[in-house]
Amino acid sequence: xxxxxxxxxxxxxxxxxxxxxxxxxxxxxxxxxxxxxxxxxxxxxxxxxxxxxxxxxxxxxxxxxxxxxxxxxxxxxxxxxxxxxxxxxxxxxxxxxxxxxxxxxxxxxxxxxxxxxxxxxxxxxxxxxxxxxxxxxxxxxxxxxxxxxxxxxxxxxxxxxxxxxxxxxxxxxxxxxxxxxxxxxxxxxxxxxxxxxxxxxxxxxxxxxxxxxxxxxxxxxxxxxxxxxxxxxxxxxxx
Amino acid sequence: xxxxxxxxxxxxxxxxxxxxxxxxxxxxxxxxxxxxxxxxxxxxxxxxxxxxxxxxxxxxxxxxxxxxxxxxxxxxxxxxxxxxxx
Lengths: 239, 86
What we know:
The complex is a heterodimer of chains A (239) and B (86). Chain A is an alpha/beta fold and 239 residues long.
């Protein structure tokens, strides 16, 4: 199975994603420079974390216009699984593949810490191996993760079951203290109508082995591997 | 021709930076300062023939790139140099 990890100038979690995919899960991770125009034989696309284009203007605002993004859009619209992590999530918001926008964290601080995430939905390719209500311990590292959308969009996301992850405390309860950035309803990750595009601020790729403090993030990658294997959608020639 | 673009958060969107600045001003004793909203300011140098074209172009890039319509709105001002168009 081949994962395309898109690399923008300023991406800095691209190697973390590659490590998780290739060395922890044993699949193929291929870096795709943002100036390329084709994802080629990718089965999964990962937009990694970092500070694309220095976060100038707005987070993800410049990366959105990168040449590769036309093919990312085509891939997403044809049902291919796309995962946006942190800055990758911000890029998905800016390009409109997911609704909403990011504001500065409510306390204006950059939060780099372990958080608890509650899995709300298992009908996405990135959560199907998890269970509803499962609490994952994964890190966040961002200054602008305060998810915002107009009230009618929040209502639609909630009613349609498109909030995939929420910040919770260790017992799985949504609380103000457990929310690192002020996101509405403790939203940490969402999906699109078709459920194939998922964005989240926390970093599951940095929590795939106990040696780094948690292996809870593995389920995200194992989910998509299982999803594609079940669909028989893996490109011939990739493992 | 130059255009100025002001990008601000929509009134319905909480501005954590503006709020923090307002709190700082209040703690300094500036009680007469009410709310503070922080925004962005851009100067665009435009190679166009008319004010109308400058306004149209500035608005297009403000809408497409400089602002995020989910959270922000923008305003365009043309800066006409003394003595007419440049």
